[in-house]
Design goal:
The complex is a heterodimer of chains A (333) and B (253).
Chain A (H helix, E strand, L loop, with lengths): L1 H12 L1 H13 L8 H26 L7 H19 L3 H20 L7 H21 L1 H4 L12 E2 L2 E2 L3 H23 L2 H11 L1 H6 L4 H27 L9 H14 L4 H17 L7 H15 L10 H5 L6 H5 L3
Antiparallel strand pairs in A: 1-2
Helix pairs in contact in A: 3-8, 3-11, 3-12, 3-13, 4-5, 4-6, 4-11, 5-11, 8-11, 9-11, 12-13
Chain B lengths: L3 E10 L2 E11 L4 E5 L6 H8 L7 E6 L2 E2 L5 H7 L1 E3 L12 H8 L8 H6 L2 H20 L15 H14 L4 E5 L7 H16 L3 E5 L3 H7 L2 E6 L2 E6 L1 H6 L1 H8 L4
Parallel strand pairs in B: 3-8, 3-9, 6-7, 7-8
Antiparallel strand pairs in B: 1-2, 1-4, 4-5, 9-10
Classes of the chains: A mainly alpha (333), B alpha/beta (253).
Chain lengths: 333, 253
């Protein structure tokens, strides 16, 4: 345990350098001669890294625990798939469209949540996730319901058609870097400080002149936008999507990644994603006991390091946040 | 014309009248005290001035502009900043970041400026850090800039909260019991500090229980009891006012 803490301190002090050094072997991954199955796992981890990074912006940095992230993932996937199938658009456009449509729904979900905090907010986002899934399941004309959308074309970036494992890998890597840089730049700025202050103490933030509604909406919209882009990539990559891919379980999975990796840490969220994608695969030999082990790993982790691997915020602190209402304030009087 | 003018301000919670028909004013570059026994409604009054509560009736004028019922962030933007009785810093943000939040209303880069690292973001950020450091220096916390605010000792947290409020360059600074929990030395230092704010041209409205502090820095004092204003005047008048003595010590004292 001590070694782990030491390692984390070392990381905190040499963040930039370490992340840069990590990038070199990652760039070389396609040359390691991995099996197609392995490449598929790596690419899948990449998708989850984007999902975890985006949810981390909303949950880890802004303190809004969302159980509906899979909905934005799904909305992005369906938007891109439909645009690609019906209009044969290039991935550049379908991805942006997927992000924008998901972002728009993020904005809509953000609006009623202004006065909701902690667990209440989580329940609303859970409901949103279910509604999205049910719409996808029942709007036959658009989504073909449980049959799903098949034959989604391969992604095209202008004239470059992506069809090899290595190409998919580099495409997701580029998307991860874009997401990472955007979210990182956002966090280390006037806007980012405003978001973090909402997580820390909403009432004080408001009293310091921060428009809570505006900044919560920024967090919801931006998080949904990047989840939509992840969905868009997934649709083209898998070439088939159905409502089963974007259920509530998926939301929980993404949230677990953020919590395990460490809320409020981008590298933590990325690690969380890689770990939770690979653990079930590594435990395949255990067959039916595999999910049990998976659960045990999560429980042990939470007991030993409740703020997650690299995070500095505990889930409990966010869920038990001081409510912002008159009774609470009037105790000061 | 008064800088802040309060007319017939009332706030009721259910059947309880926390603040009852209070009128008061604060002039430019003045230090005004607000005192009264526990539960007299002082903080409720602060909460109405800063927009956390909407008054049940009455009017708030800041520089002759009606600010009654505006949202807290708007009121800070207009020029009224405050501290809290039970410190409300951002615990997992550094001292510097806490003060930089105070600069929020005085800066303008958008989320796109930050994502794209535009020139506006870079120059503003540079100026912000410089300005925040200056303010930290004013309260003597410049060496603590990278400490998480939750790790600062109590007295320094109080100072940091004042620094954060000052960062918004307020027309009026509202201090809610700044000396609460401080020892005598710290209180004396704070007294000097608040006096110094007047020299910087600031206007201060302060709630405080420490009578020595109040009497030595305030030019005028308002006294609340059970939500109503029972006295106002210069410190000398307040000290000898029988109603004030009765409110604090009870009848027959």
């Amino acid at each position: 345990m001590k070694l782990l803490h030491k390692g984390i301190d070392f990381y905190m002090n040499h963040k930039k350098l370490l992340i840069m050094m990590l990038l070199v072997p990652i760039m070389a991954v396609p040359f390691f001669g991995f099996s197609p199955y392995m490449m598929r796992m790596i690419t899948l981890s990449g998708i989850y890294i984007i999902l975890a990074l985006s949810l981390n912006l909303l949950t880890g940095f802004t303190g809004q625990v969302s159980l509906g992230h899979a909905a934005f993932y799904g909305i992005g996937a369906y938007t891109s798939a439909l645009l690609a199938i019906r209009f044969d658009l290039s991935f550049v456009y379908t991805a942006i469209a997927g992000g924008l449509v998901a972002g728009f729904f993020g904005l809509l979900l953000g609006l009623p949540t202004l006065r909701l905090n902690g667990t209440y907010l989580s329940i609303v986002t859970l409901g949103f996730c279910e509604i999205t899934r049910l719409v996808a399941l029942n709007w036959m004309d658009l989504t073909r319901g449980p049959m799903g959308l098949t034959g989604i074309p391969l992604p095209k970036v202008f004239s470059w058609v992506i069809d090899k494992d290595a190409e998919f890998f580099y495409l997701i890597l580029i998307l991860i870097i874009l997401t990472w840089v955007a979210i990182n730049n956002l966090i280390k700025s006037r806007t980012g400080r405003a978001l973090i202050s909402i997580r820390e103490d909403e009432l004080a933030a408001e009293a310091m002149g921060i428009n809570i509604l505006k900044y919560k909406l920024i967090a919801f919209t931006t998080a949904a936008f990047f989840a939509g882009i992840a969905g868009s990539f997934y649709a083209h990559y898998a070439s088939f999507i159905d409502p089963q891919s974007f259920t509530f379980d998926e939301s929980i999975q993404i949230l677990s990644m953020v919590i395990l990796g460490g809320m409020g840490s981008n590298l933590g969220a990325a690690f969380g994603a890689v770990i939770l994608v690979s653990i079930p695969e590594m435990l395949r030999g255990l067959q039916e006991y595999r999910m049990l082990m998976y659960g045990a790993v999560l429980v042990i982790m939470m007991l030993m390091r409740p703020q997650g691997l690299l995070g500095n915020v505990k889930l409990g602190d966010i869920l038990n946040k001081k409510p912002v209402n008159e009774e609470e304030v009037s105790q000061d009087a | 014309m008064h800088k802040l003018q309060i007319e017939g301000l009332t706030k009721t919670f259910g059947g309880l009248t926390a603040v009852n028909n209070v009128a008061m004013h604060v002039d430019d570059n003045e230090i005004v005290g607000l005192i009264g026994p526990n539960g007299a409604g002082k903080t409720t009054l602060f909460n109405m001035i800063t927009g956390l509560y909407t008054p049940t009736s009455g009017q708030l004028l800041y520089q002759e502009k009606d600010i009654t019922g505006l949202k807290p962030d708007k009121i800070t933007d207009i020029g009224i900043a405050r501290t809290f009785q039970n410190i409300r810093l951002f615990p997992m943000m550094t001292a510097l970041e806490n003060v930089m939040i105070g600069l929020h209303t005085r800066t303008h880069s958008t989320m796109f400026d930050s994502i794209l690292r535009t020139k506006r973001h870079r120059t503003e950020e540079k100026n912000n850090i410089q300005r925040a450091m200056e303010i930290l220096e004013m309260v003597g916390l410049e060496s603590k800039q990278d400490e998480y605010s939750k790790n600062l000792p109590y007295g320094e947290q109080r100072k940091l909260e004042i620094a954060r409020a000052m960062a918004s360059n307020p027309g009026i600074l509202l201090l809610d019991e700044p000396a609460a929990g401080m020892n005598e030395n710290e209180t004396a230092e704070l007294t000097g500090f608040i006096k110094g704010l007047k020299g910087l041209g600031m206007t201060v409205l302060v709630i405080e229980h420490d009578m020595r502090l109040v009497m030595s820095i305030c030019e005028r004092i308002y006294v609340l009891d059970y939500g109503s204003k029972i006295a106002e005047g210069v410190p000398k008048e307040i000290q000898s006012n029988p109603q004030v003595i009765e409110a604090y010590l009870g009848k027959g004292a």
